[in-house]
Structures are given as structure tokens and as C-alpha cells.
Amino acid sequence: MPDLDRVIHERLRLGIVSALAVNEWLTFNELKHLMRTTDGNLSVHARKLEEASYVECHKSFEGRLPKTRFRLTASGRKALERYLQHMEALIRATRAR
Asked: Do the Cβ atoms of 53 and 76 come closer than 8 Å?
């Protein structure tokens, strides 16, 4: 069995990737609200996902207010699929005993 993807396995990062898997784009504030976390915590974990090329970050302004949006990349979607397959295999193996 392959190793778990440590980038996705962390609770908040898995939540971010899962939320982006069912929403094309989410703003920073939408993700913060969904994850019930702080600005700093979301920033740190979103950056880890960006560094792994799992998430794309787009910054812009709406009037004078900065707006940061995120979306899942193709490699992020593949990584999530591999992670889910791994977890499903683990569950099947555990229940088979």
C-alpha cells in the first residue's frame, strides 16, 4: 500500500481540498468560515497546498478591498482522488478482518 499523502492528510488541508473539490472557486473568507479557523492558520495551510501545486491562489481587488480566491488544480484533484482511494482501501482491509 502506498504512503499517505502527508500534504493532504492534515485535517485543515484535507478540508480545504475537499471544499474546493465541490466549489470551482472559494474566497479566503468563505474558506475561513467553512473551516472555522483563523486568518493565520488558513494562510499557512493554503500556502502548503499552493507549494505542492494542489491549489491555485488568485489575488485581486474589488474596489479598494483585496480579494483572494482559491481553486483546486488538476494535480490537486488527482492527489485528492489518490488519497480517497487509499483511505477506502484501508477501510476495506480493516473491515475484512
From this structure: yes
Among candidate residues 40, 25, 36, 27, the one with its CA nearest the CA of residue 73:
25
Q: How far apart are CA 47 and CA 55, in angstroms?
A: 8
Question: Counting Cβ atoms within 10 Å, is residue 20 exposed (0-12), middle (13-18) or buried (19+)?
Answer: buried
State the burial class of residue 30 (Cβ atoms within 10 Å of its Cβ: 0-12, 13-18, 19+): middle
- pLDDT tens digits, 43-86: 999 999 999 999 999 999 999 999 999 999 999 999 999 999 99
> What does the pLDDT look like over 29-40, one tens digit per residue?
999 999 999 999
